[in-house]
Amino acid sequence: EADIYQTPRYLVIGTGKKITLECSQTMGHDKMYWYQQDPGMELHLIHYSYGVNSTEKGDLSSESTVSRIRTEHFPLTLESARPSHTSQYLCASSEARTGGYEQYFGPGTRLTVT
Amino acid sequence: GEDVEQSLFLSVREGDSSVINCTYTDSSSTYLYWYKQEPGAGLQLLTYIFSNMDMKQDQRLTVLLNKKDKHLSLRIADTQTGDSAIYFCAEKGGGFKTIFGAGTRLFVKA
């Protein structure tokens, strides 16, 4: 079973607030990812990381930022939340295995900005 | 660029077989995946197939790969109501990133 955690699971917050979504994995994976997904819709990669101190923007432009100071931790921050940020945010990690880079996903954070 | 396409909806009766189809564009894909997402949860890897394989079977799941046509399918035998979910086709793109399709919503009618 994958050991990747996200907190909080649900967050309702007002416009203009700063928020940090937490993601941690205990598998020692180098690669980590953040996806944005509207409920029941496709995934959009917004950030990824090759390893410690390495972060890259994904395919979908996002106003969020990420950091990777420790292998196991990949938090995502929104400096000033807006209603357009309302979505589900999924964190994932991967490493090279016999199945290629199969990804392990956290349960997601459902963010609502009012 | 790399792209993965799949139909958005599929409805089947309980006990029937479900076939979910997917096409991809990257001919250099080495791994192709099927992920399952249940409501309110993250994605879970169901199965994968290496590009030099034509078929892979794992209990009720059968994956068929037609590399010439860049077509991947997932067959679920004896579909149950618990199989109702969104199924994502994905390919290993350049480097280590995974390219996901938009997902097929499977509805299983009792």
Report on the structure:
- The complex is a heterodimer of chains A (114) and B (110).
- Chain A is globular.
- In chain A, the strands form 2 sheets. In chain A, strands 2, 4, 5, 6, 9, 10 and 11 form a 7-stranded mixed β-sheet that branches. Chain A has a 4-stranded antiparallel β-sheet with strand order 1-3-8-7, with no helix packed on it.
- Chain A starts with a strand and ends with a strand.
- In chain A, a hairpin with a 2-residue loop joins strand 5 (44-51) and strand 6.
- With 114 residues, chain A is mainly β.
- Chain A has no helices and 11 strands.
- Chain A has strands at 4-7, 10-13, 19-25, 31-37, 44-51, 54-57, 65-66, 76-78, 87-94, 103-105, 109-113.
- Chain B is mainly beta.
- Chain B has strands at 4-6, 9-13, 18-24, 31-37, 43-50, 55-58, 61-66, 71-76, 85-92, 98-100, 104-109.
- In chain B, the strands form 2 sheets. In chain B, strands 2, 4, 5, 9, 10 and 11 form a 6-stranded mixed β-sheet that branches. Chain B has a 5-stranded antiparallel β-sheet with strand order 1-3-8-7-6, with no helix packed on it.
- Chain B is globular.
- At the A-B interface, strand 5, strand 9 and strand 10 of A face strand 4, strand 5 and strand 9 of B.
